[in-house]
Amino acid sequence: MKKETLFIAFTTQKGGVGKSAMTTITASILHYRMGYNVAVFDCDYPQWSIVKMRDRDTKTVIESERFKLLAYEQFTSINKKAYPVISCKPDEVIQKAEVFLKETPIDFDFVFFDLPGTINSAGVINSISRMHYIFSPIIADRLVLESTLAFMNVLNGVLVKGGDTGIKGIHLFWNMVDGREKSELYAHYDHIIKELDLSLMKTYLPDSKRFRKEMSAQMENRQISRSTLFPIDRRLSKFARIEEFITEFLQIVQH
Q1: Burial of 81 (C-beta count, 10 Å sphere; 0-12/13-18/19+)
Q2: Does residue 45 contact residue 116 with C-beta atoms inside 8 Å?
Q3: Strand ranges (DSSP E) for 98-151?
Q4: How confident is the prediction for the chain on average, in pLDDT?
Q5: What share of the chain is helix, strand, coil (3-state, %, to 5)?
Q6: Cβ(203)–Cβ(171) below 8 Å
Q7: What gap in Å lies between CA 128 and CA 132, rounded to an integer?
Q8: Partner residues linked to 171 by β-bridges
Q9: CA nearest 175: which of 214, 148, 215, 196?
Q10: What are phi and psi of 214, to 5 degrees?
Q11: What are the residue ranges spanned by the domains of the chain?
Q12: Other residues' Cβ atoms within 10 Å of the Cβ of residue 139
C-alpha cells in the first residue's frame, strides 16, 4: 500500500518574488540530498519556467565535462534518477497528478506544483484547494504584500476555515530580505500578518545575486545554486539560510 503523497505549492499573486526558484531549490535538496522522492508539476502556463530550466540544465550537462562527472557521481551515490518535471495546464493538473501517482511504481513523498500567479487562470482555485500545504514567499514591497496578504487571507478564510479543502496549512515566509532595511519595517508587517491570523515562518531568506543564478557551462568552478538536476551547493545554502528553511519546512509538513 502506497503512503500518502503530500501536494505542496509555492504560490503568490505577484511574479518575481522567488516562487519558482524556491520550488526548484526545495525539490532538489529533498530529492538529491535528503533521500525523499519528489516530482514537480509545472503548471505556470504558458511560461513553464521550471520545464525550460530542466531543458537548459540537461543541455548544460551534455556540454560540460564537469557536470557530466557530477551527474555520474550523484547517480551512483544516491541511485536515483532526476525527479520528473511535468508541464501541465492548471485546470487539469490535479487529475494528471493523481493518474501519474497511480501509474508509477515509486512511492513519492512530495509533489510540488508551480502554479500561475493569478487566480484568473482556469482551474487555479480548484488546484489550490487540493493542496496539503501552501508556502508563499513575500518581499518588503507594499504592492506585493497587499496583493499577497489579501489573497492568502481569502484562501485562509474561505478554504481552510471553511473546511471544504484538504489544505492543512498556509505559511508565508520572507524572501529577498535586504539587511540594510530597518527591522521596524518587517516588525510592522509581521504584526499585520499576525492580525490576519496567517502563519509566518521563522526563517527568512536574504537577498543574494548568487542565490538567483542558474547552472551554466560557463560556471565550471562556481557554486551551483538553482538547478533541477543538482542540489544547491552546501556552502551557498548555508549562507542563504536554505538549510534553516528546509528544516522548518520539514517540521511543518511533519517529515
Answers
A1: exposed
A2: yes
A3: 110-114, 133-138
A4: 87
A5: 45, 15, 40
A6: no
A7: 9
A8: 135, 199
A9: 148
A10: -85, 165
A11: 10-253
A12: 19
Q: Pick from 81, 101, 1: which is nearest to 41 by CA?
A: 101
Residues 100-116: tens digit of each pLDDT = 999 999 999 999 999 87
CATH superfamily of 10-253: P-loop containing nucleotide triphosphate hydrolases (3.40.50.300)
32 CB burial (10 A radius; 0-12, 13-18, 19+) = buried
Instruction: Assess contact for 217 and 64: CB atoms under 8 A.
Output: yes
The gap from C-alpha 52 to its chain's centroid, in whole angstroms, comes to 16
Please state, in angstroms and rounded to a whole number, the distance separating the CA atoms of residues 241 and 26.
Answer: 12
**Tens-place pLDDT, residues 42-53:** 988 778 899 999
Q: What is the pLDDT of residue 115?
A: 85
What's the rounded mean pLDDT across residues 124-152? 87
Mean predicted confidence (pLDDT) in 131-135: 94
- Give yes or no for a contact between 243 and 205, defined as CB atoms under 8 angstroms apart: no
Tell me which DSSP letter residue 198 carries: -
> Which residue, 217, 231, 228, 213, is CA-closest to 65?
217
Tell me which residue of 153, 161, 147 sits closest to 195, measured CA to CA: 153
Q: Report how far Cα 39 is from the mean position of its chain's Cα atoms.
A: 11
pTM of the model: 0.91
**Using 50, 70 and 90 to split pLDDT, how confident is the model at 120?**
low
When pLDDT is cut at 50, 70 and 90, the band that residue 222 belongs to is low
Q: How many CB atoms lie within 10 A of CB 38?
A: 23
